[in-house]
Amino acid sequence: MDMRIVAAIIVAVLLIAAVLVWLSTQRRRRLLLRERFGPEYDRVVNQYGEPQRAESVLEKRERRVQGMEIRPLSQSTRDQYAQHWRELQRQFVDDPRSAVAEADDLVSDVMSTRGYPMGDFEQRSADISVNHPRVVENFRAAHDIALRHRRGEASTEDLRKAMVYYRSLFDELLEQPAPERRKVA
Q1: Most buried residue among 1, 30, 37, 141 by CB atoms closer than 10 A?
Q2: 53 vs 78: CA distance, rounded Å
C-alpha cells in the first residue's frame, strides 16, 4: 500500500479520535454542570438560548465565587440568626408585610456575614446559585414578591409564599443539619 494512503488513513483516524475525545469532554462538562446547577442550568440555558453560552456563564460564576472568601457561621451566630427567624415567623401572624421585609433583610445580612458580596440582586442570585443552586429560584421568587409588596401588589398569600421561599435559602445559608431545620420551623 502506498505510504501516502497509509499516512492519510492515520491522520483521518487521529482526527476522528480527537473529535470523539472533544465531544466526550463536552458531554461530560455539560452533564457535570447540569448536575451541579440543577434547575439553574436549565434557567440559564433558556436565558442565553444555547447550552455553550450558558455553560460558559455558569463556569464564570463558579470562578467568581471560588475567588470569594465564603465563611461558615459560628454556632453562636447561627443560633442568633435562627432565633431572629423564629421571631419573624411569629411576627408574620400579626404583621406579614413587615415580616417579609425583615426576612429579606435577614437573608441579606446572613449572606453578607457569610462573605457574599452585596451588589445588585442579579449578581447576588448568580453568586448564590453556585453554592445553593437548588434554592436560588426560591430566592428570586421571594425577592419578586418583596418587590411587588413594596408596590402594594402582593396578597397575604403571596407574602406567606415569600416567607417559605426565604426560609429555604435561609436554612441553606445557615448550613443546619436537616433535623435542626425541622425543629426551628
Answers
A1: 37
A2: 38
Residue 129, CA distances (Å) to 7, 21, 82 in order: 50, 30, 22
Residue 181: band (very low, low, confident or very high) from pLDDT cuts 50, 70, 90: very low
Residue whose cell numbers read 402594594: 152
The identity of residue 166, as a single letter, is Y
Rounded-to-integer distance, Cα 185 and Cα 179, Å: 10
As a whole number of angstroms, the distance between CA 65 and CA 59 comes to 10
- Ordered alpha helix ranges (H), the chain: 3-37, 39-48, 51-66, 75-94, 96-114, 121-131, 136-150, 156-174, 178-184
Instruction: Give the torsion through C-alpha atoms of 44, 48, 54, 57, to 10 deg.
Output: -90
Mean pLDDT of all residues belonging to the chain: 87
DSSP notation for 93-115: HH-HHHHHHHHHHHHHHHHHHHT
Residues 6+ apart with CB under 8 A from 69: 115
Spatial separation of the C-alpha atoms in residues 152 and 143, rounded to whole Å: 14
Could you give the CA distance from residue 24 to residue 18 in angstroms, rounded to a whole number? 10
What predicted TM-score, i.e. pTM, was given to this entire model?
0.75
